[in-house]
User: Which sequence fits this backbone?
């Protein structure tokens, strides 16, 4: 699915830097730049290649842009109904779209949760914009959603109408779906020639105890009564959506992803849902860049058991192992045992708290501290080149 996979884009014996973001401190691209700066000082004779990564959530578009994709800016509807500036990445006919850009938690005013009313309409608008730019393959990152609307807003953003019994358009959000009476999909684009891969968690149905309302509604601050309201709305939405598309998607793995946006991707876009890190590494051409690498350095803010459940650094480590490259990780702090690291194919972890025990300083000085860590990485993994005596 890579838009650009050169046969040998990296020099032999290079160090490939493929970190995810350090939330609250550094983007993935910033982390890669600091690692590169430190390594170039410690081992100026070793080629360094930067490839920031993501898992489908915040930073996914930035990772594609850092890999050379074109950034397309757009103004769309945010999760609270206000206009927001968002972007997607484009390379030839492949678009990378990040739900968090248009419909993510960080787009909520003051980050105040709105579980009953937040909408994914802006994500649908980004998809529509990408189609107008000629995209025939779309990678849709499903992380960090603010909405629990089953992707109903996404459908509206693509031109669909959700109508009540009086023929009026429904207001945004999952709660309003209880009043859904009919769908008008005549203005929806023809998706028959478009491949859509949703990068997210391929687990969890749309409805019920493990569904979108129970999981994402709770994360978004919904109480028990509100979760019941959301689940009832999503059930009504699923009934009409499946009847309209003839795609029974509510019980498919990943239907509940991103507040149910996974369901809309399955039912209306004919998408497949795949683990986020693997999809993004493929799109970014990781395998080609890892070829003949002397070392791969990955990392994220906290490397713990949550990382094992679909974190980008674990995806990097496994992909690097397939390419035959050793992997070390950097992190703010580590919460994995040596055995867990070995199973994840990570040979060593270097943490900011090893050299700065104060958590606040770790955040404020994350960049310089990463550069300090590269000294230990270089000493242990990149022995100086011994040049023959003249």
Assistant:
């Amino acid at each position: 699915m890579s838009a650009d996979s050169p046969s040998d884009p990296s020099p032999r014996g290079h160090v490939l830097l493929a970190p995810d973001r350090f939330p609250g401190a550094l983007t993935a691209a910033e982390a890669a730049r600091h690692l590169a700066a430190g390594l170039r000082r410690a081992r100026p004779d070793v080629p360094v290649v930067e490839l920031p990564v993501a898992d489908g959530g915040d930073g996914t578009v930035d990772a594609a842009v850092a890999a050379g994709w074109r950034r397309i800016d757009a103004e769309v509807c945010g999760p609270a109904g206000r206009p927001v500036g968002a972007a997607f990445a484009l390379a030839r006919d492949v678009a990378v779209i990040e739900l968090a850009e248009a419909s993510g938690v960080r787009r909520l005013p003051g980050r105040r949760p709105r579980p009953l009313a937040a909408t994914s309409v802006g994500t649908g608008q980004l998809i529509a914009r990408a189609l107008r730019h000629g995209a025939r393959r779309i990678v849709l990152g499903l992380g960090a959603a603010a909405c629990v609307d089953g992707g109903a807003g996404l459908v509206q953003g693509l031109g669909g109408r959700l109508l009540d019994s009086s023929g009026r358009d429904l207001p945004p959000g999952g709660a309003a779906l209880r009043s859904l009476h009919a769908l008008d999909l005549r203005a929806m684009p023809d998706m028959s020639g478009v491949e859509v891969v949703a990068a997210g968690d391929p687990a969890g149905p749309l409805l019920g105890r493990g569904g979108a309302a129970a999981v994402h509604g709770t994360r978004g601050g919904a109480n028990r009564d509100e979760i019941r309201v959301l689940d009832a709305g999503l059930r009504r939405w699923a009934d009409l959506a499946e009847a309209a598309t003839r795609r029974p998607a509510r019980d498919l793995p990943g239907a509940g992803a991103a507040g149910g946006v996974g369901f809309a991707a399955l039912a209306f876009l004919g998408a497949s849902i795949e683990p986020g890190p693997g999809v993004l590494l493929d799109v970014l051409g990781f395998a080609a860049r890892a070829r003949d690498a002397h070392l791969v350095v990955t990392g994220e803010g906290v490397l713990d058991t949550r990382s094992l459940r679909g974190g980008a650094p674990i995806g990097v480590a496994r992909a690097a192992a397939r390419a035959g490259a050793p992997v070390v990780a950097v992190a703010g702090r580590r919460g994995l045992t040596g055995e867990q690291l070995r199973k994840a194919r990570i040979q060593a972890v270097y943490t900011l708290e090893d050299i700065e025990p104060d958590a606040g300083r770790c955040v404020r000085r994350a960049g310089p501290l990463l550069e300090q860590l590269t000294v230990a990485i270089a000493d242990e993994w990149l022995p100086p080149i011994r040049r023959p005596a003249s």
